Amino acid sequence: MPTPIDFYFDFSSPYGYIASHKIDALAAKYGREAAWRPFLLGVAFKATGQTPLPQIPIKGDYARRDMERTARFHGVKYRQPSRFPIASVSPTRAFYWLNATDPQRAKLLARALYAAYFSEDVDISNAENTIAVAAGLGLSADDVRAAINDQATKDLTRREVDKAVAAGAFGSPYIVIEGEAFWGHDRLDQVERWLATGGF
Amino acid sequence: MPTPIDFYFDFSSPYGYIASHKIDALAAKYGREAAWRPFLLGVAFKATGQTPLPQIPIKGDYARRDMERTARFHGVKYRQPSRFPIASVSPTRAFYWLNATDPQRAKLLARALYAAYFSEDVDISNAENTIAVAAGLGLSADDVRAAINDQATKDLTRREVDKAVAAGAFGSPYIVIEGEAFWGHDRLDQVERWLATGGF
After folding, report:
1. What pLDDT, on a 0 to 100 scale, did the predictor assign at position B1?
2. Containing H/E element for B11?
3. B180-183 and B174-177 strand pairing
4. Does the beta-carbon distance from A72 to B193 stay under 8 Å?
């Protein structure tokens, strides 16, 4: 089996959420897996000097409309969260803690966290809400709470976020296939051709 | 015939150049015309506080690679210009001068200017180069030179750029269909569905 493609995303990113509905099927179509790698856009923005979309005049207004319309276009259930964007430290820590022992279940957790935030308006920046989502998948709330606050999980998360930024992830989603990077759900057409042809 | 769709672009924008190869056929497929409306991204960036892509750390490096790959993906001839980005005042003035009397020929001029810059590395920020491109279409070099320097053309261009920014154009291309805005060549799929369905 070839190496997985890397799927970097922020839990606070609507376009990452939209891509999360497609990336596994797209990879599987070409005999690949997608390694889900949440990161923190806020850390990347420090490297690039960028600003969260909603804070940018004019472009921010456009973006809000585009997020909702793009979700409709792709048939993805979407409800603009009351708080947006959010700091996604808690869901990212919960993900990497679970991912260390069970990557497939960690993907289920990531999907559930994304759905909670972007379709049910659950503020997953609140650790207790992240824990409740995890508990909904049958994980022990006490275990998840302990993991989120464990220094080892914090260190692991920091290392993974640093690796994402080192890999060039400046936005979300950011997909890498053997060193070739694609930014945005709207590059999935190019991702597909890259997977199909080996590069163009 | 329904009202035209608005196609805002900057002559220095690779993604505007790519979209310029598709927008007329896309509009015509749904019985529409595209009104080409070049503007100056530099003026829009003052309103949004944005920075030209190449100056943004990390993202700028990605963008350069993405521009070339995206042109290949769409089968558009592309050669990264030696000077990029450029101030596109001269080509924009030449366009609006001609557009006032002959919009169809103005489109041909816009295509020729885009091709010169993005496939032949001609620096069209230099007025004499813009004039030479226009002369290649059979226009009088003296007429174009006089027009570019005419206060009436300068005023017309300023008004059009102000109208573009007032319409929300913060990036290029920026397409508006009866008030609904789409930013980026990578929203042409949504533009098409919008034209086909009347909105979604």
Report:
1. 66
2. none
3. antiparallel
4. no
Neighbours of A31 (CB within 10 A): 9
B168 touches chain A (CB under 8 A): yes
pLDDT tens series, chain A, 200 aa = 689 999 999 999 999 999 999 999 999 999 999 999 999 999 999 999 999 999 999 999 999 999 999 999 999 999 999 999 999 999 999 999 999 999 999 999 999 999 999 999 999 999 999 999 999 999 999 999 999 999 999 999 999 999 999 999 999 999 999 999 999 999 999 999 999 999 99
Q: Do the beta carbons of residue B38 and residue B11 sit within 8 Å?
A: yes
pTM, two decimal places? 0.96
Distance CA B96, CA B82 (A): 26
B15 has a pLDDT exceeding 70:
yes
Any A CB within 8 A of B119 CB? no
Cis previous bond, B85, omega within 30:
yes
Q: Which of A41, A66, A78 to mutate to test the interface with B (most CBs of B within 10 A)?
A: A66
For residue A85, say if its preceding peptide bond is cis, omega within 30 degrees of 0: yes
Residue located via tokens 């603009």: A80
Report yes or no: A65 at the B interface, CB cutoff 8 Å: yes
Contacts for B44 with CB less than 8 Å, ≥ 6 apart: A58, B50, B164, B165, B169, B170, B171
Rounded Cα distance between A35 and A147, Å, is 21
Query: DSSP string of A150-177?
Result: -HHHHHHHHHHHHHHHHTT--SSSEEEE
Q: Which amino acid is at B32?
A: R
Pairwise CB contact (< 8 Å): B168 & A70: no
Is A46 near chain B, with CB under 8 Å? no
- Report the half-sphere exposure of A96 (CA within 13 A, side-chain side): 27
Compute the count of residue pairs across chains A and B with CB atoms less than 8 Å apart. Answer: 72
Name the one residue in this structure whose structure tokens are 């269909």: B177
Residues B51-78: tens digit of each pLDDT? 999 999 999 999 999 999 999 999 999 9
Closest partner CB to B48 (pick from A56, A66, A168): A56
User: Is there a contact between A15 and B187 (Cβ–Cβ < 8 Å)?
Assistant: no
Residue A74, chain B, CB below 8 Å: the answer is: no
Maximum distance among all alpha carbons in chain A?
49
